[in-house]
Amino acid sequence: MKICVISFDFWGYDEHIVDTLCNKGIDAHHIKMSSVTHSNFSERATNAVSKIFLNKNLKTEKRLKYVLDSLEKLGCQDQILVLNPDTFDLSTLEQIRKYSHRLITYLYDSLDRMPVEKEKLNLFDKIFSFDIADTQKYGFEKLTNYIYLPYIKNEDQNPQMDVFYITSYDNKRVFFIKLLAKKLSKLNVKFQIMVIGKKGWANQIKNIFIKIPEHLHIIFSIKKIPHAKLPSYYKNAKTLLDLTRENQYGLSFRVFEALSLEKKIITDNEFIKSYDFYNPNNILVLNETCSNLEKSFFELPYEKVPEDIYYNYTLDNWTDRVFELKKN
């Protein structure tokens, strides 16, 4: 069987799908659009001028051409998975459609945040979505993100931090982080929060003039942390923080990273209570003022998730379901 995964893959999650498929003996390939960048300064400058005066992004066109050129080399596929089709124009999706009889997509963002035109969605034989609201409104098939990290027992780790969180810059999240930081500080909880993004530069400058206590560590940075290094940060914390974006109702990858490493979760996502792995001993859903955050949450030991429930969220099971590799 030949399967191709096409995605931008900014954070590096999607390559795990292809690795899992290859481990199952499938001829799988990943067309990673983010690998296509400007070759030199001249290309960057030309693209900047094109965007300003012609409203035309040459880098986007270069990436779309790369997708079609790669498919031409690979040939016809049994299945093609396109992740977040909002990054494609209609004509490119129509060309992709010609390379397989089964074209599927997985939306790991809500349509409120990343709209996709109906004409594009109509090209897909199957549409999966991580967002509960979208599955109810549009009839998409509900599918969570997946566990991609290897399972490591809680007792085999020696975390030094109580809470760790890394996130891209988002106004809603940053506002809530400041509120939460005050509460964590009062509880004398050791934590590290990293906010990544170009918009964080103003906060970065402010931090130069603010003396931060040892137990209160917030970093604003424009430098991206390599995806491969993130697990080392996660392992050094007892609890992972996960805050939603505006109009987000699905579960982020942070939840599944926490499951694989047997970490507790603090989140503002009320919908997590509807999942079968939810355990109030392991998962705290914050209220708007963080007044329900107590020191006792960190003091109680982690309770293991039953194996059968855990397996449902593994990438092994995810790929079987998405690509219909196992028939009942």
Strand content: 15-25%
Instruction: Give the termini separation.
Output: 19 Å
* Biggest β-sheet: strands ordered side by side in the sheet: 2-1-3-4-5-6
Structural class: alpha/beta
Q: Let me know the largest β-sheet.
A: 6 strands, parallel
CATH class of the largest domain: Alpha Beta
Within the CATH hierarchy, at the fold level, what is the topology of the largest domain?
Answer: Rossmann fold
Oligomer: single chain
Number of helical segments? Answer: 13
Compute the CA-based radius of gyration: 21 Å
Q: Quickly give the CATH architecture of the largest domain.
A: 3-Layer(aba) Sandwich
Reading the helices and strands in chain order gives: EHEHHEHEHEHEEHEHEHEHEEHHH
Number of domains: 2
Number of strands: 12
Proportion in helices: 25-40%
Spans where pLDDT lies below 50 across 5 or more residues: 47-51, 204-216
